[in-house]
Amino acid sequence: MALKFTKPTDAEHKIKLESELLYAGWMSGMAYIGLTAKFQVQTAFVGNGSPVEITGKTKQGKKLGKIKGVMTNNSYVGVMEIPDNVKEGDWAYFEVDLSKCGVKGQADPIPVGPPVTVTNMKWSAKEARRGDIVTISADVRGVLDDTDVKLTIYEYDKDGAHDKLADLATKAKGQQISLDWKYEYFDKTHQIPTDEELKKYGQNYQAPQYFFTVKIEECEFGKKQESGLLAFKDWFEIKLLDGEGKPRGNEPYTVTFADGSTKDGTLDGDGYAKVEKVPPGKCTVTFKNLKGVSLQQ
Fold it and tell me: Using one digit for the tens of pLDDT, what is the confidence trace for 69-110?
């Protein structure tokens, strides 16, 4: 937008700035049936709070809907639903109406794509330890190759307050997605409440578990844990020495885990044992033949 000034600069002058539509367009290259499509409107010299009306249409005469909003910093971003009655192969566009500013315009159309389905969401394993590589995969029907897909990993909470752990970017290939993820547990496991501690509040032990979702355009699939839950299993080592620092081998022991379960075992000749597939959290090791001796992890 070019402004031409022809008056002297040593005096105050008033000029009238005309509102203008700079850009109206979709933020993706395809409008998938049953999903939503994101769009953006950018203007010049339109005040904050100016009402804007977006009307979605297709070239074959289908109505996508009408959205009313207000401009903020000369910009408006929204999403438009692509209803099921729109046909694949049609073209979707929208009209912009800022009537109070005397501005109207229209976005370029994008093709309407088929309905998208996401199925067969799964982890390559049911359990993971620190450093394990787990493959995340799913079938994504209806999307084009190289479509951007976002995978989000959540830590499951039985009360529904799932914590987001990571966002991962990938692309659809051959109606599928597949991505390797390295599992790490960054918090301190001794901070995980034990079953005994939680029973005081009428609750039970819950080991960290994870599910993932698949986001295509503005639609997120898998919020009901369709991927299944990936469980975190810990491990630890026992090394028992006598008062002189020498290994005390072949001692029977019992481990009481954070979930209240127990496991019996016997140290090897060097006083060593490795305990695997442990419910993460605080645990206690006691020795049958050593009264008053216990270890906490």
Answer: 999 999 999 999 999 999 999 999 999 999 989 999 999 999
